[in-house]
């Protein structure tokens, strides 16, 4: 049988034919795709004709379509269904892809041909394409001499190997850290459906009895908010923070030392004093100093608010507070002060209804989209669902895949990725995926979400909309291919619709009775919005500042013991709050050490939130959820991708630069 990845998929919108793809097909397709693209680039660079936009920049954009198909499918499997066989392939394939990226970006003849293109008569998007390719070449090291390029290739290859190994160890660690409970009495406070899920997880893991408490990626574990047994809470918390730093085959601390050392050397080679300075090059933030100044403006009031919250919680607990107590007593205070019981809300947040009457409903009201489930189309796992998305005029827009349940082969957290990216040049329309890690319910039981999980569903769908509504000419600019400190902005904006009255009233109904969420609960949710922001902001800042500390090391600077360095970094940044550990610690900070997309860039979430909070104000000022408002946001932002400067898109939408005041008010930091 012909390898399905070597030819365009015959399925709607180019959805990969996962049912026909074997593990061996990935390696074959990647090798063939690399060879194909290198041949295409050789044709470009060896041409006798003078460089033009068509024979150089456009030809480069058209190149590598086989590799694009293979990599999109394979990386989806690595993140969402990383079986042992896929993990083994990852170790083989990822260094090849790193070397291939260098083969393109360090190709001086290709760079020189791009630089020779006359862009004076090109349309703005085409001229920007040439400019951004040249920026990529500069940032990648095309200006280095032969010795410098050789060293850079070696650094990139080793960093890819280390990042892959880090991700694999963390994936094993999160499974190994699951806590087995043998006495049902210890589960007091845990809802019945969660108990059933924990029992099912224990059987799936090979235990004849008991309940298995599986972990999520961040430090804080949602189950800590409901478990009455303090000792079990302690066990779960300590299992969470020990991941990746307790020795054995899941320890990543040595990998971290090696990665930060090599990244610092890479930054120096490319003309930057630290990797943090290299990472900010190409972002919307102007400098690391600007980033540090923004984080510094938030740190003191956030820590002060967290201290105030801690005092209230200690009074509620009647004893000294420990980190594993925070979520439990915070939930109690929220309930007592604001009449908000997070667990009592879960029956109103049933997954199917949340999607159909919440997430999809909001997209319909704002952008005129319609979603039709396609059970005839298969994903890469039985849990994956596929919807066809139709635009307001009835035309097919693309496919949306939802993969919502946790499993041992899926990495922790939540994310969006694209299997097919929209581009008029290639004629392709988008196929995008949302991944969450909700506990899978027992057979026949509904999937009930917490408020935070429901918010995450809206957030990730904001990323999906960024991909689905893309309307650009070139693949390079499609959808979420924007600077890291801008990519979270549209997704954060989409969170606003979670509690928007006409959306909430449409989906928040009791899964058994159909009764709407009581008005008193809605009022209580609104009143309680600032409760816990001190903790939430401080734990986020802890992770962001830890990231910058690791990547602010100068070349050759020895951090010493990894955990000691972490403690010193948090203390020096003013966020060493024992009751509020960082959202991610070094041992499981996949955002920055596995793949490196957010390396020295975890701050970008709050940088984007400045734009988000200001945009929420714009919607409120202009009538809220209307098609006119949605169409404006779509036309000026969601559809633009990176086809123009992102901040220019924001200004075209908002009419001015962003104001930080709405963010400070939202987080109680004004």
Show the helix and strand layout.
Layout: H1 23-45, H2 53-62, H3 65-80, H4 84-105, H5 108-115, H6 124-140, H7 146-176, E1 179-181, H8 192-204, E2 211-213, H9 230-241, H10 253-269, H11 275-280, H12 288-317, H13 326-338, H14 342-345, H15 351-367, E3 370-373, E4 385-390, E5 396-405, E6 415-420, E7 431-438, H16 451-468, H17 484-494, H18 501-507, H19 519-527, H20 533-551, H21 562-572, H22 590-593, H23 604-621, H24 627-638, H25 646-654, H26 661-666
Parallel strand pairs: 5-7
Antiparallel strand pairs: 1-2, 3-4, 4-5, 6-7
Helix pairs in contact: 1-2, 1-3, 1-4, 4-7, 7-10, 12-13, 12-20, 15-16, 15-18, 16-17, 17-23, 24-25
- For the terminal residues, how far apart are their CA atoms? 63 Å
As for the number of domains, it is 4
User: How are the strands of the largest sheet arranged?
Assistant: 3-4-5-7-6
Question: How helical, in percent, are the residues?
Answer: 40-55%
Uncertain residue segments: none
């Amino acid at each position: 049988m012909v390898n399905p990845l070597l030819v365009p998929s015959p399925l709607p919108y180019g959805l990969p034919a996962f049912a026909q793809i074997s593990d061996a097909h990935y390696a074959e397709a990647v090798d063939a795709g690399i060879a194909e693209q290198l041949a295409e680039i050789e044709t470009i660079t060896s041409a006798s004709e003078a460089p033009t936009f068509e024979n150089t920049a456009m030809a480069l954009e058209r190149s590598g379509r086989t590799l694009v198909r293979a990599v999109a499918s394979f990386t989806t499997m690595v993140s969402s269904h990383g079986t042992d066989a896929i993990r083994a392939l990852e170790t083989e394939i990822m260094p090849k892809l790193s070397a291939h990226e260098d083969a393109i970006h360090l190709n001086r003849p290709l760079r020189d041909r791009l630089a020779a293109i006359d862009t004076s008569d090109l349309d703005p998007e085409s001229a920007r394409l040439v400019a951004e390719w040249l920026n990529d070449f500069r940032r990648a090291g095309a200006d280095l001499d032969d010795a410098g390029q050789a060293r850079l290739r070696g650094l990139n290859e080793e960093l890819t190997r280390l990042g892959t190994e880090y991700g694999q160890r963390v994936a094993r660690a999160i499974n190994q850290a699951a806590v087995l409970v043998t006495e049902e009495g210890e589960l007091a406070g845990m809802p019945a459906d969660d108990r059933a899920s924990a029992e099912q997880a224990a059987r799936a893991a090979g235990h004849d009895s008991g309940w298995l408490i599986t972990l999520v990626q961040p430090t804080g574990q949602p189950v800590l908010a409901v478990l009455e047994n303090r000792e079990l809470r302690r066990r779960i918390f300590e299992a969470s923070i020990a991941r990746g730093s307790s020795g054995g085959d899941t320890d990543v601390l040595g990998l971290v030392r090696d990665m930060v050392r090599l990244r610092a050397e890479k930054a120096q080679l490319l003309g930057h004093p630290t990797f943090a300075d290299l990472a900010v090059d190409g972002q919307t933030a102007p400098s690391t100093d600007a980033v540090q100044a923004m984080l510094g403006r938030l740190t003191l009031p956030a820590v002060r608010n967290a201290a105030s919250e801690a005092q209230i919680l200690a009074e509620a607990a009647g004893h000294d507070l420990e980190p594993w107590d925070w979520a439990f007593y915070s939930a109690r205070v929220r309930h007592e002060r604001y009449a908000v019981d997070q667990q009592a809300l879960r029956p109103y947040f049933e997954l199917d209804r949340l999607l159909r009457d919440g997430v999809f409903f909001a997209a319909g009201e704002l952008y005129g989209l319609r979603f039709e489930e396609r059970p005839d189309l298969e994903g890469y796992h039985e849990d994956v669902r596929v919807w066809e998305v139709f635009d307001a005029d009835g035309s097919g827009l693309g496919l949306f895949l939802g993969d919502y349940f946790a499993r041992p082969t899926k990495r922790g957290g939540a994310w969006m990725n694209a299997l097919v990216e929209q581009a008029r040049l290639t004629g392709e329309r988008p196929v995008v995926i949302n991944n969450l890690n909700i506990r899978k319910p027992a057979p026949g039981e509904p999937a009930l979400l917490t408020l935070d999980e429901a918010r995450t569903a809206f957030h990730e769908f904001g990323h999906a909309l960024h991909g689905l509504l893309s309307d650009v000419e070139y693949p390079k600019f499609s959808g979420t291919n924007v600077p890291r400190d801008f990519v979270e902005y549209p997704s954060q904006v989409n969170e606003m619709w979670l509690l928007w009255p006409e959306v909430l009233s449409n989906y928040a109904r009791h899964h058994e009775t159909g009764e709407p969420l009581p008005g008193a609960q809605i009022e209580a949710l609104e009143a309680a919005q600032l409760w816990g922001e001190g903790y939430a902001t401080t734990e986020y800042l802890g992770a962001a500042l830890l990231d910058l500390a690791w990547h602010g090391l100068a070349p050759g600077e020895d951090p010493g013991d990894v955990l000691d360095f972490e403690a010193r970094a948090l203390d020096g940044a003013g966020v060493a709050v024992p009751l509020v550990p960082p959202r991610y610690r070094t041992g499981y900070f996949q955002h920055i050490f596995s793949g490196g997309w957010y390396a020295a860039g975890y701050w970008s979430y709050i940088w984007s939130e400045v734009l988000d909070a200001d945009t929420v104000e714009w919607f409120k000022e202009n009538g809220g959820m209307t098609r006119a408002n949605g169409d404006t946001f779509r036309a000026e932002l969601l559809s633009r991708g990176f086809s123009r400067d992102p901040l220019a898109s924001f200004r075209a939408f908002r009419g001015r630069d962003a104001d930080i005041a709405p963010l400070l008010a939202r987080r109680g930091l004004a």
